[in-house]
Backbone:
């Protein structure tokens, strides 16, 4: 089952309400997305910590072969 971009944004926004979030459907299939998440809470965290926090916000939607979201390329950072 594919996910819509707005569903991904909603899940991320719940965890990062003040973030700048941009979601792009890379293949037009609802399974391959890129997301850019810019949030102050990432300041002082390394990229792995930032990305783990975003994946946690997805509440298991990428877990295993039956996950609703197949691929998400993440770019995360604190605001400039």
Residues:
């Amino acid at each position: 089952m594919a996910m819509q971009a707005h569903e991904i944004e909603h899940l991320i926004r719940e965890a990062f309400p003040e973030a700048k979030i941009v979601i792009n459907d890379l293949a037009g299939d609802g399974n391959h997305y890129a997301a850019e998440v810019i949030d102050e809470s990432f300041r002082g965290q390394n990229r792995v910590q930032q990305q783990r926090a975003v994946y946690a916000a997805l509440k298991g939607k990428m877990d295993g072969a039956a996950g609703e979201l197949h691929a998400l390329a993440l770019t995360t950072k604190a605001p400039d």
Remarks:
- The chain has one domain: 5-77.
- Residues 4 and 30 are 6 Å apart (CA to CA).
